[in-house]
Amino acid sequence: MAVPEKLRVKVLSDNAGYIDMTHVAHREVAFSEVLDLVVAVAGLNTERIRTLLRAGTAVVNAYRYRWPPVTLEPEELAPLLTRFPHPQPDRPFDAARCMLAKIRAGVETIELRRESAARFWDVLMEVAVRRRPAYETYSYRDGADLYWFEPNSAEEQALRRAASMLTVQRTAEQVTGLPLEKVVLYVKR
User: Fold this and answer.
1) Are 147 and 135 in contact (CB under 8 A)?
2) d(CA 40, CA 20)
3) How far is the C-alpha of 147 from the C-alpha of 97, rounded, in Å?
4) Dihedrals phi, psi of 68, to nearest 5 degrees
5) Rounded distance, CA 171 to CA 167, Å?
6) Spatial distance between the Cα atoms of 23 and 115, rounded to a whole number of angstroms
7) What mean pLDDT do residues 32-43 have?
8) Helical (H) or strand (E) element with 12
9) Does position 18 have pLDDT exceeding 70, yes or no?
10) Cα–Cα 20 to 30 A to 10, which of 28, 46, 148, 177?
11) Please, which residues have CB within 8 angstroms of residue 34's CB and are 6 or more apart in sequence?
């Protein structure tokens, strides 16, 4: 099958319960955009991509996307995937490009965005730079390289002291009251 230029895509909320009054949108979408959605779910796994394209459905964030089935052979798909970044384990951590941090704290995950964490963010980045976080992978869903480290007790204490700089009280309470087990940093390329 030839690669279609556009597909008619149905977009609906995947949060639907038994009865849902959510608006369903139909749009003509470039195939490259559908491929972006599929890669966000499947990564660069060619067989998974082919399966999702044939199934004609993918769930990304809180939305389900549906389109007519597309069957592509691996040799047709391969050139379309060259535009996507690949994991680069030797890529150094760049604090200036870090936009999101997720701290695993017991059974909870504390999510911190650069723009909302302000001064606390500066302390977190100082800790991360000193620590030289390990490269984990590239997240196609987030469009970012993921790095991680497990804070030692001194680093955990530095983050707890800086928690008073957070503007959201609940987040500050989580940082000060929960065990800070693992920090995952999302770095845009």
Assistant:
1) yes
2) 26
3) 12
4) -65, 145
5) 8
6) 32
7) 96
8) strand 6-13
9) no
10) 46
11) 7, 9, 53, 65, 67, 70
161 CB-near residues (< 8 Å, 6+ apart): none
DSSP lists the bridge partners of residue 144 as 139, 188
Contact 62, 13 (CB under 8 A): yes
Cα separations in angstroms, 58 against 33, 70, 160, 161: 12, 13, 40, 42
User: What are the counts of helices (DSSP H) followed by strands (DSSP E) for the chain?
Assistant: 6, 9
CA proximity to 63, closest of 13, 126, 117, 138: 13
What is the rounded CA–CA span in Å between residue 141 and residue 65? 15
For residue 21, give both structure tokens. Answer: 């009054």
Helices (H), the chain: 31-42, 46-55, 74-81, 114-131, 153-162, 169-177
Token representation of residue 44: 């660069």
pLDDT tens digits, residue range 159-189? 999 999 999 999 999 999 999 999 999 999 9
Amino acid at 42: A
76-133 pLDDT tens trace? 999 999 999 999 999 999 999 999 999 999 999 999 999 999 899 999 999 999 999 9
Whose tokens are 């309470």? That residue is: 173
In the block, tokens 């909302």 appear at 116
